[in-house]
Specification:
- It is built from 18 helices and 11 strands.
- It has 462 residues and is an alpha+beta fold.
- It has 2 domains: 202 residues, Metalloenzyme, LuxS/M16 peptidase-like (Cytochrome Bc1 Complex, Chain A, domain 1); 193 residues, 2-Layer Sandwich (Cytochrome Bc1 Complex, Chain A, domain 1), CATH 3.30.830.
- A hairpin with a 4-residue loop joins strand 4 and strand 5.
- Helix 12 packs parallel to helix 18.
- The longest helix is centred in the first third of the chain and has 23 residues.
Amino acid sequence: MKNILTFCLAIALSVSFTNAQEKEQPPVGGEPKGFSLPKKEVVNFDNGLTLVMVPYGAIPKATINFNIKTGNIDEKENQVWLADLLADLLEEGSTTKTAKQIADEVAGMGGNLNIGVGAHTSSLSSSVLYEFAPEAISLMADVLKNPKWPESELDRLKNDMKRQLSVQLASPQSQASRDFFGAVYPDHPYGRTFPDDAMIDSYTVADIKQFYDDNFGAERTTIYVAGNFDKEQVQEAVEKSLGDWRKGTPASYTIAKPSSEGQVKIVDRPGAPQSTIYYGLPTIDPSSEDFIALDVTNSILGGSFASRITSNIREDKGYTYSPYSSLQTNYKSGVWYQVADVTTEHTGASLTEIKKEIAKLQSEPPSKEEMEGIINYESGIYVLQNSSPNGIINQLVFLNVHDLDESFLVDKVKNMHAVTPQKVMEMTKKYIKPEQMTLIVVGDKEKIKDQIEETLNTAIKE
């Protein structure tokens, strides 16, 4: 019996060892398929309005997006978040329907109405049962064309906005982001991320109406409909509800002139157990021929969970929990930056390791295996994220904002796989330059100032 038990135990251990080996050496995944943009139909109306219809999928719903090429980029220096307040007031109803009536009607179609504002575009969007697509378009057009602008709601909305502002600015991440983008874009709306209470208090309905009159109209509007719907009924609904809308002015984004002066600033947060780091510089936009290669470079350096900076200061050193780098796309401009919340005592050491990883990638190309792993992951995520009506619409909006050809989307996976290790090294040397980077750190100044000065070999201005 003892011999039998020993034999069984040996077999079990052998199986366990084999399983462990198999887990350590998983099978190689297949190469992700390319992104195929579904066939679409584009209708241009006499007043400048554009309708884009994309039949897609089998789910009996239609995703509708009214996309207007205006947003925070069109705000003046004393108008930060005015576009957001305009969107809030749009939600209060039209001249023909109350906010409750609108909400109830959209709910009856199987959806809800979302109104949002970004840097470059504003949007009204909904996803409804396919048979209600024409009705939803008519309702959304009413909200867009005939805003009520109820002055009685303005103070409440401004107070809500001030509370939101207070909550956000209590966060060290928001403080660092505010000062970082303010330094990189000192004379552009990209650098004006937060207003102050006095600015919000100053906004009037007249200001909102003026912004609307200056920036909203058919010329700047594209209506995207993706999913399942009757094309003839959708086109008829758009023409009937918005075909007579005023043309307005064409979009004209102000191109930013970013700064690469390498500013260093500490925002004092006495007693903080962590330091929040924003470290980066201006770079290229999606229209550049180097953009895809730089995007892959970012993924290797700090833009993915398996990236080098993340592995270094999170996995190996334990200085931080969730660092990341980002390649932010603006109109004819971009920014690469690394973000990390690190323990106070390791602030300087974290910066040292970030610089080491940049220097290493500038001098040594990554291995073929590392490249394949990152590119397969990123291209797979790209295809997966765009495999829905809303994902497709988002990509079409991206093309429209950045004046890009459809080949940017269709060829992206192929172009990612064409990036070589040598190209990644070249991109790092060409675009990721620590000597030109702006550094903003929010933390306990008394404890981190000497660390940062020693790491950067520079005196920090008071």
